[in-house]
Amino acid sequence: MTNRFTNIFLIVLCLSACDQAKTEYILTEFEYESKVDTNDHPIDLQEKKEYSTEAGVTADNLFDAARLNDFKETGANRFEVPIHPENSPINMSPWYAFRIKAEEAKAIEITLTYTEGIGKHRYWPRLSSDRENWMAIDSGRFVVAQDSLSATMTIDVSTSPLFVAGQEIIDSNDMKEWVLARKSANVKTSTYGKSRLGRDLLRMDITNGKADGKDIVILMSRQHPPEITGQLAMMHFLDENLDGSELSNDFLDNHRVIVYPMINPDGVDLGHWRHNEGGIDLNRDWAHYRQPEVRQVCEDIIERVNESGGDVKLGLDFHSTWEDIYYIYNDDVISKIHGFSREWINDIYERVPEDEGIIDPFPVNSPVSKNWFYRQFNAEAITYEIGDGTSRELIKTKAEVGAQEMMKLLLEKY
Fold first, then answer.
1. pLDDT, position 22
2. pTM of structure
3. 312: closest CA among 388, 211, 236, 227?
4. Taking each helix axis from N to C terminus, what angle separates 246-254 and 228-241, rounded to the nearest 10 degrees?
5. H/E segment holding residue 346
6. Going by C-beta distance under 8 Å and a sequence separation of 6 or more, which residues neighbour residue 122?
């Protein structure tokens, strides 16, 4: 009789232990209907130099994130800036960033030119004298050609250098400073590897107390170098998670947030339109992990999940495009928090009526980060796109409200 009860006790104990056993994830390769070759593709590096002209105007690309392929004098106080990509085929995202000055103060005209079939104008110019404070050029001083293959700006130059760029500049060193400034008792900052050119790949690991067993949210940004508005949204979103409010503290008592703020630092610092140093769009490599930046971030996520025994519930990947869009799963894709995305976005709409972001459902049929979260963890994931021209005030408001509503929903319902 004693042996019988002993055996029953051991069986119950074993079943209980099995129920509580940690799921051990391994990095899995996936096949998708939409296939993309992410083997290395050669790139054309821009020549780093200062361009001088007889008119006493000089321009250069001698800083990280610059893009200036040439600088030609075409007439009296008129200049041409050809904009070429790192390779092709490539997304229509012609990035430009250069510094300009003159021997004497004057107004000059600069025409950006693009190669037909490869680029069309996308980014409205922004100007800065210190690379910290930026202002969009006045609409009366900028004209885009009807075919978008050129765009002409009138700017005032002087002996003090002026930065001209498609968006604000946030390079890898800027992001490292931003990350380190947020280091605290509940924010651990570190690196999880190196890019192809040896730049640090940054991580923030955030929770109150121990991470063991807590549900996990993953935030990431800058797979695509010029997508600054998405980066700004991620920064505001995370700062709201860390604001020390009752909601934030409650959320971090029960959840863990892991952040990969700049996945493609090489592409950013090289001034690329879209790709990494391997000439590949990193957000097409989330199936076979041929590029080291993607492989390392995936391996790091899985390692951290396995160490803590936590459950990845949500992945948010911040990007930029021509307009605000929320890319979500089709309704027939059943994640472990199915229904979260539409409810979350509708909560944002209710509080931010000026948010005109489109909900755009997609099937899980392509090797992008959003689909990797579903295939690897059965997690919900959203590609959070911000328009190139979305006002910086709206970016901040949407991100802060989005962070608040995410925390509420994950605490109260999911």
1. 65
2. 0.94
3. 211
4. 90
5. helix 340-351
6. 92, 93, 94, 166, 322, 388
